[in-house]
């Protein structure tokens, strides 16, 4: 049973002002982890090519090509030899601020059906915007490029609002074939707790955008029916580990970036609780003041500004098997996260010297990262020759 937002906010105020809560215990935090400057990284960095504000990437089954999105609304087919060609047939995107073309993910049965899923910011009425997810079939032509056909929008943020922040809109397919979408609260705070809105939520859908009959809030209305978890701020990483568990990483406000294990029907507390504070200095009660909300597995203050999340299972870096990697924007880093069951810790951090928008594991087991800027590079991270 879920209380209304006014009730939840009243409870938050009572708890925050109750005796004994003036000095909350320390929040879960990233352990002190080795920091690796550029000249001490355990990998060799090679540039493949450059982009205009890249956002996401997805490898094709041939292992030699990948799709890369650019925020202004372009999709590129990239060869690992640096070749680049355009994919046409994309939806019109609302570019500006944090908005534009976002994630790109292949259907699990892509080799048979050629379906590609894209997230993007979509314009609405009266200068409003919202994230959307569409799917289409990819056809690669003999000239090295290709096109999308049969594009259909299968999900939209509700409601569309004004502003250009916190779309979230990462996409992932789970091992059971369901489609998962992270939806940011669009810098509007309260919708993260409002079950009439799908903002500030993690969503679980069928591959065609319809709602699975066993979702936790399926009886609470058509929008609530999409929701798997709530109380999120700006979730920009979404990934499954080898055990089939879903993990999410999100930007906190002023402090308090979070790594969360996502569980059915769980409420992660934003904006009622956070291990960060508002940018104007107003405090937000910490998670440990209200244990009914799920606390993060790791909380970062100072923030890392996480932008994507993967789990590594390749053979090129055997010491990293089972680790997660988060790309960092303001931290200009690649953060390795180690796990012991549901417990997580920052294991080490690699200085990349630029804002990192995305990290992916290639079919070859190397890591690939996208820099977040004009002329942002696609980099391949490989073991040093002596380590191979």
How would you sum up the major sheet?
A: 8 strands, mixed
List low-pLDDT spans.
1-29
Q: Globular, elongated, flat, extended or rod-shaped: what is the shape?
A: globular
Global Rg: 20 Å
- Assign the structural class, choosing from mainly alpha, mainly beta, alpha/beta, alpha+beta, or little secondary structure: mainly beta
Using DSSP, what is the number of strands?
25
Mean pLDDT across all amino acids? 92
Distance, first to last CA? 54 Å
* CATH C-level category of the domain at 26-47 and 304-388: Mainly Beta
Architecture of the domain at 26-47 and 304-388, CATH level 2?
Answer: Beta Barrel
Count of helical stretches: 2
Beta-strand content bin: 35-45%
> What is the name of the CATH topology of the domain at 26-47 and 304-388?
Thrombin, subunit H
State the strand order across the main sheet.
3-4-5-6-10-9-8-7
**Helical fraction:** under 10%
Order of helices and strands: HEEEEEEEHEEEEEEEEEEEEEEEEEE
Give descriptors for this structure.
2 helices; 388 residues; Thrombin, subunit H
Describe the protein's topology.
Layout: H1 5-17, E1 35-36, E2 44-52, E3 54-59, E4 65-70, E5 74-79, E6 84-88, E7 101-106, H2 110-113, E8 115-123, E9 129-140, E10 146-156, E11 168-173, E12 179-183, E13 201-205, E14 227-230, E15 234-240, E16 246-251, E17 257-261, E18 298-300, E19 306-311, E20 324-328, E21 333-340, E22 343-351, E23 356-361, E24 367-371, E25 374-382
Parallel strand pairs: 1-22, 6-10
Antiparallel strand pairs: 2-25, 3-4, 4-5, 5-6, 7-8, 8-9, 9-10, 11-12, 12-13, 13-14, 15-16, 16-17, 17-18, 19-20, 20-21, 21-22, 23-24, 24-25
């Amino acid at each position: 049973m879920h209380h209304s937002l006014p009730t939840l906010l009243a409870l938050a105020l009572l708890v925050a002002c109750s005796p004994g809560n003036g000095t909350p215990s320390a929040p879960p935090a990233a352990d002190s982890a080795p920091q690796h400057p550029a000249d001490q990284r355990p990998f060799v960095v090679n540039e493949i090519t450059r982009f205009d504000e890249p956002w996401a990437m997805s490898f094709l089954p041939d292992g030699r090509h990948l799709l890369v999105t650019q925020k202004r609304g372009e999709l590129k087919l990239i060869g690992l030899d640096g070749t680049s060609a355009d994919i046409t047939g994309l939806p019109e995107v609302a570019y500006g601020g944090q908005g534009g073309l976002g994630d790109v993910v292949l259907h699990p049965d892509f080799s048979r059906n050629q379906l590609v899923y894209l997230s993007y910011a979509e314009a609405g009425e009266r200068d409003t915007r919202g994230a959307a997810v569409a799917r289409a079939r990819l056809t690669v032509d003999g000239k090295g490029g290709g096109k999308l056909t049969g594009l259909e929008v299968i999900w939209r943020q509700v409601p569309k609002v004004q502003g250009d922040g916190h779309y979230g809109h990462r996409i992932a397919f789970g091992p059971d074939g369901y489609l998962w979408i992270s939806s940011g609260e669009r810098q509007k705070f309260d919708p993260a707790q409002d079950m009439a809105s799908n903002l500030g939520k993690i969503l679980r859908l069928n591959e065609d955008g319809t709602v699975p009959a066993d979702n936790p809030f399926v009886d609470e209305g058509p929008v609530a029916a999409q929701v798997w978890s709530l109380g999120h701020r700006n979730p920009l990483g979404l990934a499954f580990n080898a055990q089939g568990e879903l993990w999410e990483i999100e930007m906190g406000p002023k402090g308090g970036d979070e790594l969360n294990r996502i569980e059915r029907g769980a409420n992660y507390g934003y904006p009622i609780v956070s291990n960060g504070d508002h940018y104007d200095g107003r405090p937000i009660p910490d998670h440990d003041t209200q244990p009914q909300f799920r606390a993060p597995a790791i909380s970062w203050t100072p923030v890392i500004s996480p932008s994507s999340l993967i789990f590594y299972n390749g053979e090129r870096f055997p010491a990293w098997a089972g680790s997660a990697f988060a790309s960092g924007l303001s931290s200009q880093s690649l953060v390795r996260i180690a796990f012991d069951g549901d417990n997580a810790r920052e294991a080490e951090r690699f200085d990349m010297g630029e804002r990192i928008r995305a990290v992916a594991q290639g079919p070859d087991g190397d890591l690939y990262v996208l820099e977040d800027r004009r002329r942002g590079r696609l980099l391949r991270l490989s073991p040093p020759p002596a380590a191979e």
